[in-house]
Each structure stands twice: as C-alpha cells, then as structure tokens.
Amino acid sequence: MQLQNIPNLKDLDANNFFLLAGPCAIESEDMALRIAEKVVTITSKLKIPYVFKGSFKKANRSRIDSFTGIGDEKALKILQKVGQTFGVPTVTDIHTNEDAVMAAAYVDILQIPAFLVRQTDLVVAAAKTGKTVNLKKGQFMSPEAMKHAVKKVQDSGNSNAMITDRGTMFGYQDMIVDFRGIPTMREYATTVLDVTHSLQQPNQSSGVTGGRPDMIETIARAGVVNGVDGLFIETHFDPANAKSDGANMLDLKHLEKLLTNLVSIRQTIVNL
C-alpha cells in the first residue's frame, strides 16, 4: 500500500518511520484529546507521520468485569473529533462484520485484532469498506502466513492493507519478537511493529495482563534498525490507572525522548 492513501497523514517526505500511537481504549473525550494533543506536538516537531490510535471497545478481555468501553457510538465520535481537531488520521480495532461498517464512518483505518486475523468474513468486511486495513499478526502465526490475510484484502478489491507484528507467544505467559519476520512481511505489505503489545505478559492468574514497559525502547530500537515501516505504541499519561493494558503502556512523559532517539537511529540507517 501507499501511505499517501491514508487521509491527513503528514510529513511523508521526511523519510521517517510512521507512528500509530494513543491509549489502549477510549476512556473519555478529555483523555483522548489530551493524549492526542501531546503526541501531535511531538510528532510534528520530529516530522513523524502520525496516526491516532484508540479502541472504541475492547472485546478480548480475560474477565467479565474488565473494562470494555464507554459506548460504541460515543467512543467512535470521540475518535472522529480527535481526527477533526488535530487533522490526523485515526485507527480503531473491530471485532464483528457490523463493527466494520459502523467504525468506517468515523475512522480512517480499520484494525483486525491478532486473535481474529484468520476470520475471513471479518477481514473481507473491513476490506469492502474501502478503508485501509491494518492486519495484526496472530501470536500463533508465522510471518509467511500473513500473505494470505493480505491477499484476502486485495481479493476483496482493496489494495490498502498493512501488517502489524505484535509478538509471538513464548510459552503461556510471555511474548517474543522474531525480527527475521520484518523483511518477510514487508514483501507482502507495509509492516508495522507493535512495540507495547509485544511486551505483554498474558494469561496471568489474576486475569489482568502484565507487561514489560521497561523494554519498550529496546524493542523499538531493534524494529527501526531492522527497517520496519512503522511503529505502534500505546501511551497514556497515567498508565497505572488506565482502564485497559496499563501494565505495558508507555508513560506519555517518556514519549518525546524515545521518539527523538528513534528518529536519530532512523536517520543513521537511511544514510548508510
């Protein structure tokens, strides 16, 4: 796909990686706008093409009492407002065919969760909206298998597919990133590395997913060095009290330093 096909994606001539970043879930309008404003300020200064990310609902939860959202239409309208306020594209994940049609009216990119990327009907429904489709690589799938998910999008008449690697299961409660998969998946589509989800520690006995945010820069640096097209980073101004995935999110106060370092690495790589 061509990144130029994503509406309002700026600074494409800077030869940087692009960034999908924001909270795990939309908790409120104030929260979303506050995070978006900070990230837009940072990425504009560093000339990083930026997409605001936020889940309008969370369907894959370990426990029935886990936070799932503030209401579908309410959250989608907040995503739309973020896009309109800051002039940036937005992305959210979908879980059903009906979600695809509904969310497409509010956001620019539809994301297929890793657990659902083999669901043909869901992938086709997303593709048929005409929106860019972000396919999260299943934790159980090889990089080579993602070519089939991409082809489902293409065979549905949509050439705008990208792949996001979010790690591979390593035992029951840990994830690893196999960086050999990046060049493989880039043969099929634009490829993104989901840094923060790759550091999850799922299936905890408490029913609340753990994580290793201290390793975010390590994984992100390796992704940039290995030529990934984009990075995916969940961030929040108060991760400890975030309603979803707080254990692996980046504290927003650390984002500028991280991205500054990553841009320096990127500039070194492209000049080799």
Automatic annotation (TrEMBL):
GO BP annotations listed: lipopolysaccharide biosynthetic process
Pfam family, one: DAHP_synth_1
Keyword Transferase: yes
Main EC class the enzyme belongs to: transferase
Record GO terms (molecular function): 3-deoxy-8-phosphooctulonate synthase activity
GO cellular component term, pick one: cytoplasm
EC code: 2.5.1.55
Pathway stated in the Swiss-Prot or TrEMBL entry: Carbohydrate biosynthesis; 3-deoxy-D-manno-octulosonate biosynthesis; 3-deoxy-D-manno-octulosonate from D-ribulose 5-phosphate: step 2/3; Bacterial outer membrane biogenesis; lipopolysaccharide biosynthesis
Chain ranges of the DAHP synthetase I/KDSA domain: 15-264
Predominant location: cytoplasm
Compartment(s) of residence: Cytoplasm
Keywords per UniProt: Cytoplasm, Transferase
Catalytic activity: D-arabinose 5-phosphate + phosphoenolpyruvate + H2O = 3-deoxy-alpha-D-manno-2-octulosonate-8-phosphate + phosphate
UniProt keyword Oxidoreductase, yes or no: no
InterPro entries: Aldolase_TIM (IPR013785), DAHP1/KDSA (IPR006218), KDO8P_synthase (IPR006269)
PANTHER family: PHOSPHO-2-DEHYDRO-3-DEOXYHEPTONATE ALDOLASE
Membership in a protein family: Belongs to the KdsA family.
NCBIfam families with a match to the protein in the record: KDO8P_synth (TIGR01362), PRK05198.1 (NF003543)
Protein name, per record: 3-deoxy-8-phosphooctulonate synthase
